[in-house]
Known about the structure:
With 254 residues, the protein is of the alpha/beta class. The protein has a single domain, classed as Rossmann fold, CATH 3.40.50.150. Strand 4, helix 5 and strand 5 form a beta-alpha-beta unit. The protein contains seven helices and ten strands. The radius of gyration is 17 Å and the shape is globular. The longest helix is centred in the first third of the chain and has 13 residues.
Amino acid sequence: xxxxxxxxxxxxxxxxxxxxxxxxxxxxxxxxxxxxxxxxxxxxxxxxxxxxxxxxxxxxxxxxxxxxxxxxxxxxxxxxxxxxxxxxxxxxxxxxxxxxxxxxxxxxxxxxxxxxxxxxxxxxxxxxxxxxxxxxxxxxxxxxxxxxxxxxxxxxxxxxxxxxxxxxxxxxxxxxxxxxxxxxxxxxxxxxxxxxxxxxxxxxxxxxxxxxxxxxxxxxxxxxxxxxxxxxxxxxxxxxxxxxxxxxxxxxxx
Length: 254
């Protein structure tokens, strides 16, 4: 539903600064490092404030990193976040993955980024050029099972042979603190009968009052999405949030 997408676009436009402030810690992201080698080509779908790029600049040498996000405000913050890092080739692109043509936003050039080091391999959309694709805290913001399936299939096409797709999704329906943030759909004039089971509207209070759309993606749905895209689940684990288990991380491979 386009209205749900609009709710999230408006949120990240209005709250880019306070949202970014809550995404400074890199501790949770340590769980992705075993799947990203030095020199890897990484696509970060829904890159937020660029903290993955900052993580890789600290812990992996020679990576070529491409971050995508639908929020122009967050992409601007990404570029500030990684300014001065020279150990990796880095680029950020504004792209909305709810639109089927988002793949055409990926750069075609071998000269990705503006650092002195050239990209180790360059890439072209749909040619499986990325060693690792990340979708961290993104898929649960996508309304519609068919749209989520299409996106997982599209990102799977970007994977190189033996590459990894890492997806994290909030398990907010199992978290008492997050459950308290759920507000009625009449706040935005949406009839709950038009929604999927697991759809929720979550409140935000830092820097003002805001709302975000989220969908609870349980392990069964994630497994089904992976199977449809021709992916296998290598590993699942929990991390993140104050409790250390808010996010379900799923490591997938072809």
